[in-house]
Amino acid sequence: MLSNGFRVYSNQNIINTLTSMISSGRLYHAFLLYGAKGLGKKTIAEYMAAKLLCENADYSPCGKCKSCKMILDSAHPDVNLITKETNSKAFSVDYLRQLTIDAYILPNEGDKKIYIIADCDTMPPLSQNILLKLIEEPPENTYFVFTASSNAVFIPTVLSRVLSFGVCEASEADCRKAIEDKGIKDKSRIDEAVEAFGSNIGMCLDFLQNDELAKAVALAKIITDAMISASEYQLLKCLYSLEGKRELSKTVISLLSAVLRDAAAIRLGNDELIGCYKTGSDALSKQISLRQAYQLYRQFSTTDERIDGNANSSLNIANLCAQIKKII
Ligand SMILES: [Zn+2]
Fold it and tell me: What are phi and psi of 70, to 5 degrees?
């Protein structure tokens, strides 16, 4: 971790590139940070903003000047975080047109303005086109940092105008340090989090601080075990416990999809696993064929789509149970 209060772990290449661009005076106006949820993309974006706005020229971001302190408090008037989480209209054409006008207004505090446009996965191409005009001819001293789970969510014309960085998982040592820095010291709980989510700091912290995620992981493990032993009773019991619980069901399904993806990967000889239950995926890979793994994966996707489409919850679960039984 950097010692200036900004909690950026690993991903030193991004920081080095930005530093050398600033010192050579050849700075891009638009950046894209992409990678899975929990890898710290917004934290890196804030770090980048701090580096651009820090009042300390020799050691930036210093973490001590007025500008850095305001960013650390998420209160800098020239650092605008735009996300659908806080504003459901954030990716609408109207909102982004307004942003285009706003971007030309001079900064309040310093000499630069930064827009962090986060979690762009659901931004429609029409809205991306509005931003394209802005990043093609950006106002002087205005910078944009986009974040998304993948660079594939952007139209090629936008991608060609941004400097893209894939954000990586921290090292395991950095991940454990990040968790301890948050005041969590219980080693067995930390081991459990790292076992489920690797070195993804955000997901590990979510697991340790959010009972719902811990509950979803526990359920996904039991359902995986039930699929391994083909225990219909256990399967029904767990799946029916999800009835009427929309968010929990979605989380469990996404965890199970990753477990199935891993089981298929193991069968194909790929050891890059992403799921929360690696030993379960390994055991499952010995019990089911690739075709079965794919069919189950498809079935969970269908169930997830039906949840999004507000399908009747008990009917949806009954259907899933019947299909799993048929497949295994
Ligand atoms: Zn500073």
Answer: -65, -40
